[in-house]
Amino acid sequence: MQPAALLEAAAEGRLPAWSHVGDDRFAHMQRVSVLLGAWAVALDLPAAERIRWQAAGYLHDALREAPPDELRGLVPESLKTLTGKLLHGPAAAARLRADGVEDEGFLRAIAYHTIGHPEFDELGRSLFIADYIEPGRRYDPAGLATLRARMPSARNEVLRDVLRARLARMLREGRPIRAETVAFWNVVNGVPARVPA
Ligand SMILES: [Fe+2]
Ligand SMILES: [Fe+2]
């Protein structure tokens, strides 16, 4: 399948054969895609961009339920040390690249959707937000509804709130924070990007 056709199919929820997700996960991907599609329309983006956003909503978790040991072999050296749960983003991006997708902003959005990246384009930022605030999420329903209501007009502020909440949780749980995530936070707060080597 040509990359453009692959994205068009994904935007409608028809996933590549290499996908590995159950019904609940698919429903989450669908909700993320619907949110992104609505924001693309609200922002008056061209049809091709809307398809790109909707496709990312579905594809970001296309390998979420594949065994981590299988995924580790797909990802670049710098990301092989990720814990099993975080490998699905980079692995899906690698699969899409192998399928001929050359849109680096799209691939970065997928690869770094859980980690964040200082060079995210508008799609990368919106996917990062949508994944966290889609209406199926169980944590803080009232808070997330408020964030959704502020999208997409206040997307810079919402991104900052989402990223702050995620960083706070990582710190509370004593988990390590990747350099890309820290750089993302700095960029969101107006500090120029310094991409880790
Ligand atoms: Fe994910
Ligand atoms: Fe997700």
Q: What do these coordinates show?
A:
The chain has 197 residues and is an all-alpha fold. It has a single domain (3-188), classed as Hypothetical protein af1432. Helix content is 58%, strand content 0%. The protein has helices at 3-11, 23-42, 47-59, 68-72, 88-98, 104-111, 122-133, 141-149, 155-172, 179-188. Helix 1 (3-11) packs across helix 3 (47-59), helix 2 (23-42) crosses helix 7 and helix 3 (47-59) crosses helix 7. The radius of gyration is 16 Å and the shape is globular. The protein starts with a helix and ends in a 9-residue tail after the last helix.
Can you lay out the helices and strands and say which pair or pack?
Layout: H1 3-11, H2 23-42, H3 47-59, H4 68-72, H5 88-98, H6 104-111, H7 122-133, H8 141-149, H9 155-172, H10 179-188
Mean pLDDT: 95
SSE pattern, N- to C-terminal: HHHHHHHHHH
Highest CATH level, the class: Mainly Alpha
- The CATH H-level superfamily is Hypothetical protein af1432
Number of beta-strand segments: 0
Specify the overall morphology.
globular
The CATH topology turns out to be: Hypothetical protein af1432
Distance between the termini: 34 Å
Which architecture per CATH? Orthogonal Bundle
Number of helices: 10
Summarize the entry for a quick read.
The chain has 197 residues and is an all-alpha fold.
